[in-house]
Amino acid sequence: MADFNGFGLFDPGLQDEPVDDDIFLSASELLDKKKPKKSSTMTRSKSGVSFKKTYGCGVSRSVTSLDLKAAVRAGRGLRNRTQSEHPAEEDYTYLPPEPQMGNIEYKLKLVNPSETRLEHLVTQMKWRLREGNGEALYNIGVEDNGVMTGLSDEDMSCSLDTLQEMARRLGASVQVLRQRRIPATLTMPERIVAEILVRKVPEDQQAIELRVCVLGSADVGKSTLLGVLTQGELDNGRGKARLNMFRHLHEIQTGRTSSISHEILGFDSDGNSIDYATCKTADEIGENSTKIITFIDLAGHQKYLKTTISALTGYCPHYVMLVVSASAGVVGMTQEHLGIAVALEVPFFVVITKTDAASPARLKSTQQSVVATLKSAGSNKVPLIVESADDCITAARNSLNNNTVPIFCVSSVRGSGLSDIKKFLHVLPPGVGEKEVEKLEQESPEFQIDELFEVPGVGTVAGGLVIQGYIVENMNLLVGPFDDGNFRDVKVASIRRNKAACRLVRAQQSAALALDIPVNQLRRGMVIKSHENLSKPCIIFKAKICLLFHPNGLLDLKKKSNFRTTVHIGNIRQSAHIQQIIPDENLEGSNQAMMTFKFIKNPEFVKEGTRILFREGRTKGIGRVTYVEPFKYLENPER
């Protein structure tokens, strides 16, 4: 288990560390360093290389190879493209070596391959697309060791012809993300390197989907930011954009989110955003999008922290967007949310809002506090201040490598920085590969219930996430566990995803199921499983826990008999007693221990290996379930 002793942010009395101003450099400035230093502090390049943002039309889904070559020659890629304007002697001329796994592929050139070679390249592209869950990045003009050799215009033209033919055979779209010109030398003419995005929506999916949880303290502008991104209209400075995000009257009256709300933002094959400004309904957004970002807006107030943690553990987000107010800076709840995201090992990025209401000095102070908080979290990541489209692409490529944290500065009133966030979300890779999804699909169906509704004319509707397997309409399943530990028969009448009807939902997809059972018999935390799944619910289980924070340490917690805490396991949220604590004797002074928990009210469906997080006051711990004791109703007559 990972050592979480570095999570100093869990101590409310911990002071921030001093920050070096040299760390506040953009990703493009970092890229200009030919040999970056080992320390986390980045210094400005002496080469004077600057990146210029240009605007041009994108490459359409039905693009021809001539159009693709013209886009590269003219310097056109997505809606934004960057290019080195003043190449220098110390310019950036290499990339990390090509990874064996993943969705990134380096190709020096693809000039006039034979039919056998072309078939091999098509198979390789198909494999890269599977690794990236429908997305692959091709770097043309780059050797396998990462050296950016570059190609002449003629060789690049032929290589793009081949790449377009490979994508055509797979039914994929091709898009120029960015390009770079390698300066001429005494022996070599000027050469060009291009980065291409290849996207193919899996055949059994309507679009590639990402789930992003939005965290941050109260009154930092989370709902307003989501309203601007999904509605396509700027805020008026008085909260107009956030009204569409609220679900209850008291939220509108107070201006604070207290529940979990969902909104979607789509992208077409050209990288253009699809929102409610261009489409009237969510169905139209889904039909016109090849990639859909599902935002999960969470509460930021301390009063609703348990609801926020339940969404983080239950919805299994691919990424977390941590929102910080430029005027208020990093506050206690910001540190709390960041610590939970890091402990759950969810990749995250930071968005600083309300830049229009903060002075430059205040904005810089907020950036310093953000960097200090990232350091204290023990995440070992390098903050990158995003200032251009090139920074967005670089940050997105490194999002799954756990080495960088992009920081965006935006204004929901003026609209500054919104295009950078959209570009970043468009090229952000899916968190789960298609191969992993296929393994989960081979398991028996399992669906966790996160929300319950009673819809007139439909009946009971359960919203949640498909953990494994797949579910189709009219499928007969089991739902539970109930108070006696048993499961009851249930039938799935209909399925909806992203507010659109569908016939099938697969593993790692969120959906809403219409069930033929009264809603008052169900509760959040239940699961829907198949008859073949013979796993039993439990009320007592053991877990290996790493204590993140306790005022007096693990030994003090051990002295307290039947310590009561709130346990979060997936979509399960229930109070439990810690009956036994056995510290790890092999590690002196360690905060790791084997703990025995007992649910207070209902038996729950818990599986070994599941991640567990418990919190009570300032005491926090995280770990994994190691043993589950099957629940037997007859042996508990008091129940």
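Next protein, fold it too.
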Amino acid sequence: MGADASKIFGELDKKSTGTIEFKFAIDVAANLPKKMAAHADEFLAKVKKGEGIETEALRKFFEGKKIDTRKVLAAAKKAKAPKEATLAFTSEEVKKSIEIDGMAKRPSGKPTPEEAEALKKQKTAKAAFFETVRSRLGLNKKSWSDKKIAKALLAFQKNANDEEKKRKGISLEPPSGTRDFFPEDYAVQSWLFEEMKKVGRAFGFQEYDAPVLEHAELYKRKAGEEITQQMYNFVDKEGAEVTLRPEMTPTLARMVLKKMDDSGEIRDLLPLKWFSIPQCWRFETTQRGRKREHYQWNMDIVGVEGVTAELELLAAVTTFFKNLGITAKDVGIKVNSRKVLGAIVSAAGVSKEMFAPVCVIIDKLDKIGPEAVTQELADKKVPKESADMILKAMECKTIHALAKLCEGKVDTGAIDEMKNLFKYAEDYGFGDFMIFDASVVRGLAYYTGIVFECFDRRGELRAICGGGRYDRLLSLYGSVKEIPCVGFGFGDCVIMELLKELKLLPEVKEKVRRRVDFVVAPFNQDLFGAACSVANKLRMGGFSVDMLQTPMKKVRKAFSYADKAGARRIVLVAPDEWNKDSVRVKDLRNVNDDEDKGDVIPIVQLVELMKKAMSA
């Protein structure tokens, strides 16, 4: 860490106790730049949650790593700063605030004279209340405006409510690293998944699924990988070792093997082209774009040896981006070959048994830097000369430069594969997305050929998706011969962050906002049954209908509800019209037109006329 280590540890451990509070360390890590945050996350993942962190262990871990002292000190300062303005309110003040809030409620439209008067009185009462609070706490209005005190009061009430719920053993937050999907969030997620499914179907793939609970043995066969340390695994009541799946590819392999006969032939039309959007679980440090549960769009091709399979998958990924309005200026796809890397590592004197662990280390190059990679390779007994040779290959900026470096040492077939892939990508129309990057190796041990990783060009987010060829995975699970396979995984968390960054979400939210064809509103309780019959008739006619559960005395309130529910039209079931076997239908696009009273339509013609109106 250099000469400034004492400054850093002096700030992290002010009282010189030799330990740092775990929560404080998490907060510091959250405020660090990307590469240093990756170092911190790697260290914190090895620490038991809640335990104090020994400064000496932290010092040893960061020894030799490039650290910006100024940025670490700034992160520590941010971590110590109050997250928001906090004030302590008395129970009487909380009670008074609730009382004032109940004095009036701002209507959605223009207030009536009575409502306007009540709002005026409420505003005066609020101003007097905030002034009383400032006086008691000795605050000045310049630093503590009415709006700031109101925000602090809400935070105080929320905290008090949370504490009360904790005492009762209830938490309204989902488990750490997981998410709730309220209807508006779920609508966006459903839209995203449907866009993924559209691409899968457009490319001739079939959708499949499997249980979220999987045999732990599927992942233990790849022992030594980080993923085996991140599983939500347990022994069930029958004594079976199971896990919530951390990824889908081993499950796919298991399912393909079920279709294989004793000779190793797959009893299905080849190539298999399957896609799925499974929920996956990994116990890891959460950060932007990374949760402990996430959904991952997987597309895989089984049975094609050449790079045409990789080409088809990359075409699917880029088509998905284009459909969402994401261009090659926003994202790129880094491509490399594990075959070439394997030959280079072998030429550097590294054994085949060490190839997979070495790939896991090299995969961290962008996160932890060459010095740290060299150190980790040394820890695996890889000589410095060999590490230097590997890192030199990682620095190649073009396929041509890599080919020149490998001349006479490596079979050029793997390099020719990459050249063909880039040529075909140009022919397919997505060559502008493609970038050669020798440092991309992907951390999973089962990759055997072309590997790729999609990134945002501003460098603010984690990998958006990644994949590659894994021809030996089925052999690991019992296949009598190698079966060529290639696939990718595309998580839902990072792409959502990218859509936010590119300001594409507002358009999506408008597209998926709550909508319904009709709201049916009974005039009173006596006409509720009649309204039910109208709603049923419209639904049987193929329309979506929101039945107003409680009759509203004021028609404008019914209009307001229908507008918020996203209805295109409201059907009013009132005595005058109903007695004539009719209902009144008003187009809500003209809701503010007081002269438009809507159309009176006979019940027997309602569905037919509405179908014509909707198609117009």
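About the second fold: The radius of gyration is 31 Å.
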